[in-house]
């Protein structure tokens, strides 16, 4: 059995659905695309993953000869509706950059160990353009919504690549769009029009981006009011452009076994608990699913406040009133926005009471704006 065959069969044995291999060459088309949209993607280009450097693998690993790329199908079990309204499926599946001690973190570790046993040097922390790598290896093609699609699976996939120092047998590319001709379902469905043309995404309008990249250490924590209004109840990720895609309908309509862990989480997961979370709720319901980007609770709380505001239910006014006393300015500010969105008499009274004692200018501005919006809507309707 050839080395290439051994590697591919091992990958399939440990749970990957597809495997492909390409030479460890640079990706000039990716470099050109990122460079052309530098302003839009500056947060990423300047970030720690150094994508422009990693797009030339041999600059980080001079001995690199091949890239082994894999597809993991993370939608093999069903996702509870109570969670899909709030959390992207890839995060529910606990496979996105999973820690080593979790099953989906152990899988790439097993792959690296196997490659090393075969005598390979394996590159470390080379953040490749995964979709382009997988397309060049013939195991995915593109969707107009910017996602990669694997034949027979759809776009609910997670891609992982391994750079090694040996030459292997290489696969043929499928760098092409596989969508039905003329289909623009994803572009029409995106609430913020983040997909501004096929295969082009403005990240700053993307709901997923706004749920987890908007942090002070990244691009700042402010979310534009226009975007807040359109986030619905999404608190970590967004699957709308994948849910409407014709190419995903077979999988979405398929009767799958329950993920029993997610069933347990869904039973006691709520936005109100996320807004004013206990240590236990954070460790058992937030961290197991949403460990990927956010490390500080205040961003989860902010997102929960936005979601509660968008629900517009006066029943959540007491929860938001509690959040108006949170030690974090960010939480108080977005709780104020949510109270203004609900606009009931009790919500407005809470805003007025807090305006008199608030000392942080950004929160004062949110409270004033919330009261102004409430008054604009008028007091003819009694929400109390």
TrEMBL record:
Highest taxon, organism lineage: Bacteria
GO function terms (MF aspect): 4 iron, 4 sulfur cluster binding; epoxyqueuosine reductase activity
Keyword match 4Fe-4S: yes
4Fe-4S ferredoxin-type domain span: 171-200
Gene3D superfamilies on file: 3.30.70.20, Leucine-rich Repeat Variant
Family matches, as PROSITE patterns: 4FE4S_FER_2 (PS51379)
InterPro entries in the cross-refs: 4Fe4S_Fe-S-bd (IPR017896), ARM-like (IPR011989), ARM-type_fold (IPR016024), PBS_lyase_HEAT (IPR004155), QueG (IPR004453)
GO process terms (BP): tRNA queuosine(34) biosynthetic process
Keywords, alphabetical: 4Fe-4S, Iron, Iron-sulfur, Metal-binding
Name this polypeptide is given: Epoxyqueuosine reductase
Organism of derivation: Desulfosporosinus lacus DSM 15449
Taxonomic path: Bacteria, Bacillati, Bacillota, Clostridia, Eubacteriales
